[in-house]
Each structure stands twice: as structure tokens, then as C-alpha cells.
Amino acid sequence: IQELLRVMRTIDDRIVHELNTTIPTASFVGKVDAGQTCRELYESLMDAHTSRERIIKNCIAQTSSVVKTLREEREKAQDDVALLKQLRKEQTKLKLMQSELNVEEVVNDRSWKVFNERCRIHYKPPKSQ
């Protein structure tokens, strides 16, 4: 899942480059529709952030369910070492997924900050953000 998230975060990693190459400076302002470019970038960011958050939360829900099931099994079979190892592995995976949610928040905040700095005069996003 981390590799998938890394690939999905490329839009956030490239936002500064994207803005520098698509939003015109004062001398080129007439050659590019900055409002349209910012709107498209806004929609791309929203889609990327929404899909990544949905994927992470889905993984957290699935892993939480597995952890709950393993805990219930562990209570029935206290001496099962393999079961304990599997439970610990799933708990570690759950903590990793929860930390990815925090990483996602930081990545999103950084992207929106850069977007707002460069696009605020060209495009006003809907109030849902």
C-alpha cells in the first residue's frame, strides 16, 4: 500500500513544478488562461486527495476488522504463539495505516498552501474545501 500511495502522491510532489510551468508570470499573462489551469489543477488535487484518503481509510477498516477477529481468537486460544505473531503483525500494519493518514494530512496541507499562493488571484475554489 505504501508504494501505491507514493505513486498516487506524485501530483502533490510535482505541484510546485506544475504551477511554475502553467501559471503565467506577468509578462506572459495573456498567453495562458490561468483561471482554467488553476481550476483543472484544483480538480486534480481534490480527486487525488479524496481517492487516497478513501483508500487509506478502507485499509484501516479492513485491518481493524482482522485485528478484532484475531483478538477474539486469541482470547479463546491463549497459548497459540502463531496466532499471537499474526495479531502483532496486523496491529503493526494498523498503526502504519493510521500514521499514513497523518502523513496524508501533511501532504495535503502543503499542496493546498502552494496552490493557494499561486492560484488565489486566478481561481476561487468552491467553499467546500
From TrEMBL:
Residues 60-90 form a coiled coil. Belongs to the MIX23 family. The keyword S-adenosyl-L-methionine does not apply. Keywords: Coiled coil. It holds the Pfam family MIX23. This is Protein MIX23. The gene is Ccdc58. GO terms for cellular component: mitochondrial intermembrane space. The keyword Coiled coil applies.
